[in-house]
Design goal:
Number of helices: 16
Shape: globular
CATH superfamily of the largest domain: Metal-dependent hydrolases
Radius of gyration: 22 Å
CATH architecture of the largest domain: Alpha-Beta Barrel
Helix content: 25-40%
Bound molecules: zinc ion
């Protein structure tokens, strides 16, 4: 009789491809899924009767800013407690590597929005290889795959970021990017909406993206704008993809700002038209509110804004900008200026638009959680169970297999994560067992640091990392270097 490390019996297996669930036994050996059968004649050191529970591939958080967290807080509780087994870091043009802060930046804050990843002391990876080694050494609880941030590259080689890079600066940025790709980076990200990247031309981005195709890497982008001119920004992103012959992933696709509400259909039509001739995907978080650094351009008295952190006024964390402005007898704009540098949650997305985008077949799930915020957006702790509990089970926006596909099989394919994202024989045993009747987020805007309910067990590379009782203390995540022979 076959002897395995683990057998999960009689689970409803949702395999990550979008297929309907099937009641199956799944055996794990040496970190891989060994056998899947209707009734397995085998024994294992650990056997679980999972009747009534759903077994799925571990969730892939396609959009994170966990770059330094995976090293500084390797338990990764906000993520593993949701069933997440892999995080993609380095989004929105900001990454922890390769970064060489300027001497004057080392004793202050890194340039916006690199400060979302933490203080200057956390940027200590001059090469991507050094970062990859640090991740491996920290033994995070979840797997980590990393993009290289365009703004980080700009800061390495430019004296100021409010202008376009010149040819010699671009050559130096290309050398950094090539080092990163050689050391396993999965792609390049841009954050063109941010001041410190906004002056970059499409040509600057194209010259970097030119290195991606031969490496089978991807281009992800927090586009130049998500407000009025969103279609132009989408065309710019798609052009980078088509000219460079690389897949494009649009980050946190949304119609931002009240004046832009109701345009999801138009935006998705533009996406679908482009998808007929090139590979494009997007990610989305399941909330009608965004979060980032406090941007004066986004201060709008019609939008409810909550301050998540402020360097000069730490007491403002968790308070509304309107209340702060009133207490200070200032306009919201003036109060926002006084709080800088700071972070904020903006309730500036329409729920109807968000649902349309979330339900689109090209959309993957990405939390965009900000782990350094003292009062974070609830997406950090709640994104994945919220999609499964609120939007699949309660609202029936999509089926459970479709929801799981958006967080497993689809992202594994789009980011070229080899042999992950499916419950399939031979694949890595990243698995989550949960109760489909009770899974739900519990983190809220007022009480955001709360683990979700309904997660039974989470295995990372075949090792049990989390149960209803909390983290097991065994961290089995790996650094996932890009694989050229992607599945
Ligand atoms: Zn972003």
């Amino acid at each position: 009789m076959l002897a395995c490390d683990l057998i999960v019996r009689r689970a409803h297996v949702v395999d990550g491809t979008g297929r309907d669930p099937e009641q199956l036994d799944v055996a794990v050996s040496n970190g891989r899924i060994a056998t899947i059968a209707t009734s397995l004649n085998a024994s294992a050191r650990t056997e679980i009767d999972a009747e009534g529970l759903t077994l799925a591939p571990g969730f892939i958080d396609t959009h994170t800013h966990d770059d330094t967290s995976v090293i500084e807080a390797p338990e990764m509780l906000p993520k593993i407690s949701q069933g997440v087994t892999t995080v993609i870091v380095g989004n929105c043009g900001i990454s922890a590597a390769p970064v060489r802060l300027k001497p004057e930046q080392q004793n202050s804050t890194p340039p916006d929005p690199m400060n979302l990843l933490g203080g200057a002391e956390l940027f200590r990876y001059p090469t991507f290889r050094a970062y990859a080694e640090a991740v491996s050494a920290s033994k995070p609880a979840v797997n980590v795959a990393a993009l290289v941030g365009h703004t980080a590259l700009r800061n390495n080689h430019m004296d100021r970021l409010d202008r376009e890079a010149n040819p010699s600066e671009i050559a130096s940025m290309r050398a950094d990017l090539q080092e990163a790709l050689d050391a396993g980076a999965i792609g390049l990200s841009t954050g063109l909406a941010y001041y410190n990247a906004n002056a970059a031309s499409s040509n600057e981005v194209l010259q970097l993206a030119a290195l991606l195709a031969s490496a089978q890497a991807v281009y992800t982008t927090h586009m130049r704008t998500e407000t009025e001119a969103i279609l132009d920004a989408m065309h710019e992103a798609f052009e980078v993809g088509s000219k460079s012959r690389v897949p494009v992933i649009v980050s946190h696709l949304k119609c931002a700002g009240i004046d832009n509400w109701g345009r999801a259909e138009e935006v998705l039509h533009t996406l679908d038209t482009a998808r007929t001739y090139q590979t494009i995907a997007c990610d989305c978080y399941p909330y009608a509110a965004g979060s980032s650094t406090l941007d004066l351009k986004q201060v709008d008295p019609r939008v409810e804004i909550t301050i998540t952190w402020s360097t000069p006024h730490p007491e403002a964390s968790g308070q509304s900008l309107a209340q702060i402005a009133e207490a200070w007898s200032l306009t919201q704009f003036e109060a926002a200026r006084k709080l800088q540098p700071a972070g904020a949650i903006y309730h500036s997305i329409s729920e109807i638009d968000m649902r349309r985008i979330l339900a689109h077949p090209a959309t993957m799930i990405g939390s965009d959680g900000l782990p350094h915020d003292p009062h974070p957006h609830p997406r950090l702790w709640g994104t994945f169970p919220r999609v499964l509990g609120r939007y699949a089970r309660e609202e029936k926006l999509f089926s459970l297999p479709q929801a799981i596909h958006k967080m497993t099989g689809l992202p594994a394919q789009r980011f070229h994560l080899k042999e992950r994202g499916q419950v399939r024989e031979g694949f890595h045993a990243d698995l989550v067992l949960f109760n489909p009747e009770t899974i739900l987020d519990t983190a809220t805007f007022t009480d955001p640091i709360r683990p979700s309910q309904g997660i039974h067990s989470v295995w990372v590379n075949g090792t049990l990392g989390y149960t209803v009782a909390g983290a097991t203390g065994t961290r089995a995540g790996r650094f996932l270097a890009r694989s050229i022979t992607a599945s």
